[in-house]
Design goal:
Blueprint: H1 17-36, E1 40-41, E2 47-49, H2 50-58, H3 62-66, E3 70-72, E4 78-81, H4 86-95, E5 105-114, E6 126-135, H5 140-156, E7 162-168, H6 174-188, H7 195-203, H8 214-221, H9 232-248, E8 252-254, E9 266-274, H10 279-282, E10 283-289, H11 293-296, E11 304-310, H12 311-321, E12 333-337, H13 340-355, E13 360-362, H14 369-379, E14 383-387, H15 389-394, E15 396-401, E16 407-411, H16 415-424
Parallel strand pairs: 1-5, 7-8, 12-13, 12-14
Antiparallel strand pairs: 2-4, 3-4, 5-6, 6-11, 7-9, 9-10, 10-11, 14-15, 15-16
This protein binds one RNA strand through helix 3, strand 6, strand 10, strand 11 and helix 12.
RNA sequence: GCGAACGUAGUGUAGUGGUUAGCACUAGAACCUGUGGAGUUCUCAGGGGGAGUUCGAAUCUCCUCGUUCGCCCCA
């Protein structure tokens, strides 16, 4: 009787082979750009108190309401796998009294996140985000810098047609007013809305703004817009954001219907997508300002701004575009050994190559020279080193040019030098 | 949470209600223990799992699990 096969949990993936390369590439691109701007890397726990997300991300967001992996410990603590990064970073900021550091404090992170939802294109239960948080600065430059950094990262990854959508959601002053206004308007046309939006009208009226249904869009097109109802301060802030964006030459599209699903956003919200791509899967990066969150989580009233990149989404996009970020590194040297003595000495020799930073392949587990050369040939190396019983005794080694079949015997002490010389050509 | 399609070796696939379920590539083993992508031979699926229909199922039905895609929502 066969046992049920052990397999990975729904929506979770092993990162193997090519996928690894992409991960590495993205990580490196993020790291390089972000280092320039003096962001410090932060690693926060993957588990946090559930309450952190309930308060931070928002008790009424779908994420918290139905998408968290939660557990309680033997000691009775109620913990959840982090569904997003910002609350953890903010918690850390507060817990370590980072308000006493020079402000703003700038962090970046790269790691796994978890959301219990149905997997589909670009959505997994365990996924990775690369994120930025700038805490302690209210100036609009920061908003733009965050966008600029993400933009640069995607450029670095050779993305071409990027579209930045931006909007302002106002603050705790003006948003509630706007919301009332909007609800009043929508209520008057409720019967024109799709069933989903009828539900949203009660739960999350702002979301109706980005409904894809045609009839809803018609209703929305005459609806009051947030940008027209910002308070003076928010209006000024948003104006500055747009001015700065113009200044750095980043193309953007002011989308008055852009709303985000997390409760803590205030003022600036943005998304970076690939033009022409399906919107829902196409959001590569999203973020915004969250001026109320630090206080909400028990810190001082501190403005902050951040965003996060969906690593898997970026990878998918790269794959679709067939952007080649790396050429497979072809090993140039292969070490073939024959006989016990030679094999023993080969181990040491290989180390010499490693310290000399010359990549060398081998198959020490194979004993037949024919097989080894075959492998070498298959790998497409330029030179094979043939190290047999005779050579081991004489402290020499054969350098074989795989193309011309020319073989030179050199002293083993000189082999690295000889190889270097040949590789230069 | 809702909907659709799919699930045969490591990978990609073929096939019919019924004797040994094929093929390609890959991988491993053996032969040859000093010179080229090799060859030959061999090995690896009991058909995602479970139940049912049937004399008999991988092929039909149901359940379950999973994958993929869509809705919701989000990175």
């Amino acid at each position: 009787m066969k046992k049920t096969k052990l397999q990975r949990p729904t929506g979770m993936h092993d990162v193997l082979g090519e996928e690894q390369e992409y991960f590495q590439k993205i990580h490196d691109a993020v790291k390089e750009v972000v280092n320039f701007y003096h962001f410090k890397k932060i690693i926060t726990p993957i588990l946090e108190e559930t309450e952190l997300f309930v308060k931070g991300t928002g008790a009424f967001t779908d994420i918290v309401e139905k998408e968290m992996f939660s557990l309680h410990t033997k000691g009775g603590d109620h913990l959840s796998l982090r569904p997003e990064g910002t609350p953890g970073v903010v918690r850390s900021y507060i817990e370590h009294g980072m308000k006493n550091l020079p402000q703003p404090v700038k962090f970046w992170y790269f790691g796994p996140f978890f959301r219990y939802e149905r997997p589909q294109a670009g959505r997994y239960r365990q996924f990775h985000q690369a994120g930025l948080e700038v805490i302690g600065e209210k100036n609009a430059v920061v908003d733009v810098q965050v966008i600029q950094i993400f933009y640069s990262i995607l450029k670095k990854l050779k993305f071409k047609n990027l579209l930045i959508e931006i909007n302002s959601l106002g603050d705790s002053q003006c948003r509630p007013n706007y919301r009332r206004l909007l609800v009043r308007y929508l209520k008057s046309r409720e019967n024109l809305l799709c069933p989903d939006c009828k539900r949203r009208l009660k739960e999350n009226p702002l979301r109706i703004l980005d409904c894809k249904e045609e009839k809803c869009q018609e209703v929305v097109s005459d609806a009051p817009q947030m940008v027209d109802h910002l308070c003076d301060e928010c209006k000024l802030h948003f104006k500055e954001v747009l001015e700065f964006l113009d200044e750095v030459g980043i193309p953007y599209y002011l989308n008055p219907y852009l709303v985000r699903g997390l409760d803590y956003y205030t003022r600036t919200v943005f998304e970076i997508i690939e033009e022409g791509e399906n919107r829902s899967q196409g959001t590569l990066i999203a973020g915004g300002r969250y001026d109320n969150l630090i206080k909400l989580l028990g810190g001082k009233d501190t403005p902050a701004c951040g965003g996060a990149m969906g690593v898997e989404r970026v990878i998918n996009a790269l794959k679709n575009k067939k952007i080649s970020l790396f050429q497979p590194s072809v090993p140039e040297i292969y070490l073939a050994q024959l006989g016990v003595l030679a094999k023993r000495k080969s181990l040491k020799l290989l180390e010499n190559f490693r310290t000399a930073k010359i990549p060398v392949s081998e198959s020490f587990s194979k004993d037949s020279l024919g097989v080894q050369l075959g492998i070498a040939s298959k790998m497409g190396v330029k030179y094979a080193l043939i190290f047999g019983q005779k050579e081991a005794l004489e402290d020499s080694i054969i350098i074989r040019n795989m193309k011309t079949s020319r073989q030179d015997t050199v002293k083993i002490a000189n082999v690295i030098k000889e190889i270097r010389k040949r590789l230069k050509k």
